[in-house]
Amino acid sequence: MTPSGSPTVNSRALALAKAYPFAIPAQSYLYIDGEVRPLDGPLDSEAPELEGRVPVLAVGSNAAPEHLKGKFGHLDGTQVIPVERARLFDFDSVYSAHVASYGSIPATLAPSPGTELALGVTWLTRDQLSRMHETEGANYRFGQLSGVRVEIDGGRALDRVSAYVSVHGGLAVAGAPLGVAGIAARNRKFEEMSQLEVLAHARDRFAPGTPLDDFILEAIGDAGYRRRLTAELKKDALSFAAPGFSSAAPGFEAT
User: Fold this and answer.
1) Using CB atoms within 10 A as the burial measure, which of 173, 180, 236, 246 is most buried?
2) Which DSSP state fits 165?
3) pTM (two decimals)
4) Read out DSSP for 224-245?
5) How many CA atoms, within 13 angstroms, populate the side-chain half-sphere of residue 196?
6) What are the phi and psi torsion angles at 99 (to 5°)?
7) In Å, how far are 27, 50, 56, 168 from 42, measured between CA atoms?
8) What spatial distance separates the first Cα and last Cα of the chain, rounded to whole Å?
9) Going by C-beta distance under 8 Å and a sequence separation of 6 or more, which residues neighbour residue 103?
């Protein structure tokens, strides 16, 4: 079962699945209804753009304007989201042990002492946070990381921030997580793979011999296939364990 019999539609679906974590701007920006407005400098903690908003780590595609548009582009009213580039210390972006509905294997967090992870911090309103909960679905749990070190590029530091972590755990190879090659990290301790490489790894584990494009299209088009694939990847997945993380219900708002 594939998303469509149309070669054009299938080609687009494959391109999207393989593009994860998508194009992420190198500098902080304002997302405004699908458009990107670069920020001239770091925002002050009292800046009106941040008022009433919750800082949420974007360890993968949630820092990409294309992905934000997919989540928020259909909502009523002007959608403005500040996305600040930052560095998170002692963590890394690794692959989750599941496949997303659009065919990619997405990211999650893993503790990694000594690693300096380049990522985004999205500042979400209450309504935007509610929408983000919807889009993260049953694959992630939302919570707060306390006692961490997050340095906004060129500006202030945060010691408490919200985050989504995979309920499936981190995809493991030889007992260790796999770093997301598309997300930069200094002093990365883990082996890293590109999206194509990790999809091929999942294919070889679940359906060896299947052409990669057929494997991806099957995962996109068949929710049952995705569930079975996820169940296989979860067998030796690594649970997220960080002493400063506390889970929160979907209505939680950080202060």
Assistant:
1) 180
2) E
3) 0.93
4) HHHHHHHHHHHTTPBPP--TTE
5) 5
6) -115, 130
7) 10, 11, 17, 35
8) 45
9) 13, 14, 16, 17, 199, 216, 217, 219, 220
Q: What DSSP element (H or E) covers 145?
A: strand 140-152
Measured in degrees and rounded to the nearest 5, phi and psi for residue 57 equal -65, 140
- Beta strands 192-193 and 179-180, pairing class: parallel
Beta bridge partners of 93: 109
User: In sequence order, what are the residues at sequence separation of 6 or more whose Cβ sits closer than 8 angstroms to the Cβ of residue 132?
Assistant: 56, 62, 71, 122, 124, 164
Which is it for the CA torsion 16, 84, 194, 162, positive or negative? Answer: negative
What one-letter code names the amino acid at 15? A
Structure tokens, 60: 């993968």
**Residue 200 DSSP label:** H
CA angle 216, 218, 222 (to 5 degrees): 130
